[in-house]
């Protein structure tokens, strides 16, 4: 029975962490298949979490925060596109600049709005715990009015509000990403832009337009991931709460060889590592108590490096990734 409870607890924790990674990883797949290195996934997750929590706090409506996060992260995607596509700057430097900018903006604006070191207020009230901490995508009273029987089923009510929908949406996003990239003309051309941009240009399509479309989609997906992180997973924003998940998502993209379903498996693996870390940190008996907590905190990242060590060499990145495209003069 204890083993069953342990497995169930790990599965629950894994599902709590994985959607954040999946949304960011699918963003990375879109961006990098178009030839744009997206180190800025981390910054876009963070700014998405901040915008979503802030707007949800003032609006009292999680759906508004979700759309606001998507819009702002799309703007950050355009900034990355402006630097790398229009001005042909270094992709890694541009991505890192976005990450640093996100940290500074969220800290500064958060402190000016809320003080408390930049933390937003708890989105479900100071006395809420557990499931009750979840900020509603749809106000709970609206659901209760529409379906009176939900009032007695708090867990189902919260699932219908936000948590379950965004978890499901993360896995739906994987299927949609695969479908768009492999079964649509837009997706096939997007992939060719990351492999042979000259051929796409010769065919009469705009390489610049497709790459900007890719960073726009990536921004929207990061916005959803950030919204899940702050308004559903934790129900508040704290500075640097993305905790390098954007980098882990990028690692999952490499692990999955830039393929959506394999990247999803990488996200599930890394989500499980986070769940194990939290489980080991919560142990208060036996020899594990003697092990410094910092070692458990580092465990997921160390194991990610070990796992990737066997995949990076065999992974073939898109041929034109990171290379600026200069249209030949006729």
Layout of strands and helices, then pairs:
Blueprint: H1 2-33, H2 41-59, H3 62-86, H4 91-114, H5 140-146, H6 154-183, H7 185-195, H8 197-202, H9 207-234, H10 245-255, H11 260-282, H12 293-309
Helix pairs in contact: 1-6, 1-9, 1-10, 1-11, 2-3, 2-4, 2-9, 2-10, 3-4, 3-9, 6-7, 6-9, 7-9, 10-11, 10-12, 11-12
Structure, described:
- It is a single chain.
- The chain has a single domain (2-122, 132-309), classed as ABC transporter involved in vitamin B12 uptake, BtuC (Orthogonal Bundle), CATH 1.10.3470.
- By secondary structure, it is mainly α.
- It has helices at residues 2-33, 41-59, 62-86, 91-114, 140-146, 154-183, 185-195, 197-202, 207-234, 245-255, 260-282, 293-309.
- The termini are far apart.
- It is globular, with a radius of gyration of 21 Å.
Secondary-structure class: mainly alpha
Fraction in beta strands: under 5%
Distance between the termini: 73 Å
Mean pLDDT: 84
What is shown here, in short?
The chain has a single domain, classed as Orthogonal Bundle (ABC transporter involved in vitamin B12 uptake, BtuC).
Keywords:
single chain, 330 residues, mainly alpha, ABC transporter involved in vitamin B12 uptake, BtuC, 12 helices, globular
